[in-house]
Amino acid sequence: MPGRLEGHVAVITGGGRGIGQAIAHALAGAGARLALCARSQNDLDATAAALRQAAQGPVEVLTMRCDIASDSDVTRFAAAVQRQLGAPHILVNNAGIVARGRLDEQAPADWIQVLDVNLLGAYRMTRAFLPAMRAVRRGRIINVSSISGRLGTPLLTAYCASKHGLIGLTRALAEEVRQDGLQVNAICPGSVDTEMLVGSGFTPAMTPEDVARVALFLATDAPAALTGACLDVFG
Questions:
Q1: Residue 176: what pLDDT?
Q2: How far apart are CA 171 and CA 94, in angstroms?
Q3: Closest by alpha carbon to 94, among 178, 192, 234?
Q4: Residue 131: C-alpha distances to residues 48, 127, 139 (Å)
Q5: Would you state the pLDDT for residue 137?
Q6: To the nearest 5 percent, what fractions of the chain are helix, strand and coil?
Q7: pLDDT band at 195 (very low <50, low <70, confident <90, very high)
Q8: In Å, what is the CA distance from 7 to each residue of 30, 54, 129, 141, 235?
Q9: Angle formed at CA 186 by CA 209 and CA 189, multiple of 5 degrees
Q10: SS3 category, 120
């Protein structure tokens, strides 16, 4: 059935709140089996409980605390997912952080941490799951970038650099795995009503659920010809 994901395993980073949580609800509603990771186990537990309460039938959710800036955490998470759920069909690289400030006033460690989570975190996760996805020759990788991956935003140089890089990763990887039956696309949201937006000075233009509907389309009904694309969702 169009739009359905029964029997499919979906991995979502940053799945404990915000956009990741909304995507988890959307994919679970379509029948997917979920593997969620985040840095807060409490957030993950709350999301898993909400998913089970919202489900009209059984929903399978694996949660695990994982810092995607840690090679060892990512390795453990990937092994647990494949041991308990099998090879993933969908990977949503959603987890991200932001650090605000003038470039010449930010500590190098803060700047590097943003790149380590937002860009290298997506690399680590994709690298960990790509062999299994290639083996089943069916998979969709969805990278959550940002309007800041399209435009420049003052006081957000690290964030912009990481999100521009994520779009480059999306486009290059799409070409690498095209012949393996895998699709790689990005979503570029504008200002979404999440905790990350608080204190930014930006007014929310959409909800996490708006972004989740786009992710659901990319995970289900997007045609095979749609790969290497960056879908703008600016509200």
A1: 97
A2: 17
A3: 192
A4: 27, 8, 11
A5: 83
A6: 50, 15, 35
A7: confident
A8: 10, 19, 17, 17, 32
A9: 45
A10: helix
What pLDDT digit, counting tens, does each position of 66-102 carry?
999 999 999 999 999 999 999 999 999 999 999 999 9
For residue 216, which amino acid is it? L
* Residues 140 and 219 sit within 8 Å (Cβ to Cβ): yes
CA distance 196 to 75: 27
Q: Which of 77, 111, 129, 159 is catalytic?
A: 159
Rounded-to-integer distance, Cα 1 and Cα 220, Å = 10
- Say if residues 160 and 148 touch (Cβ distance below 8 Å): yes
Quick check: is 123 catalytic? no
What's the pLDDT at 201?
65
pTM above 0.90, yes or no: yes
Q: Has residue 197 got a pLDDT over 70? A: no
CB atoms within 10 A of CB 194: 18
d(CA 122, CA 136): 21
